[in-house]
Design a protein that fits this description.
Layout (H helix, E strand, L loop, with lengths): L2 E4 L2 E4 L4 E7 L1 H4 L4 E6 L6 E6 L5 E3 L7 E6 L4 E6 L8 E7 L9 E6 L1
Parallel strand pairs: 2-10
Antiparallel strand pairs: 1-3, 3-8, 4-5, 4-9, 5-6, 7-8, 9-10
């Protein structure tokens, strides 16, 4: 397994969760890592991205609420999610941006 995501769960609106994704060194090192999310019947949406040097980008819908980070020594990427809303409910995937390397997805459910 080259990407392994974890940390999803059920959380009330306004709550927080932190997602984690471990990657093998061969696909992590120096690459842009990303978190996507997908709900039933919709296309996968890019939520956040982070370069090897730490530059970040976010979808407008999560700016100011989500923070992506990475630990290059541990080959890990994280998504800290705060002020969660019911519309954040989705399966979240980590990805090496622009490649076919995807984690298995972790479900985040935000109750109203």
């Amino acid at each position: 397994v080259q990407l392994q995501a974890s940390g999803g769960g059920l959380v009330p609106a306004g709550g927080s969760l932190r997602l984690s994704c471990g990657a093998s060194a061969t696909i992590f090192s120096g690459n842009v890592m990303a978190w996507y999310r997908q709900t039933s019947g919709k296309q996968r949406e890019l939520v956040a991205r982070i370069s090897g040097g730490g530059s970040t980008g976010y979808a407008d819908s999560v700016k100011g609420r989500f923070t992506i980070s990475r630990d290059n020594a541990k080959n890990m990427v994280y998504l800290q999610m705060s002020s969660l809303k019911p519309e954040d409910t989705a399966v979240y995937y980590c990805n090496v941006l622009g490649t076919g390397f995807w984690g298995q997805g972790t479900l985040v459910t935000v109750s109203s």
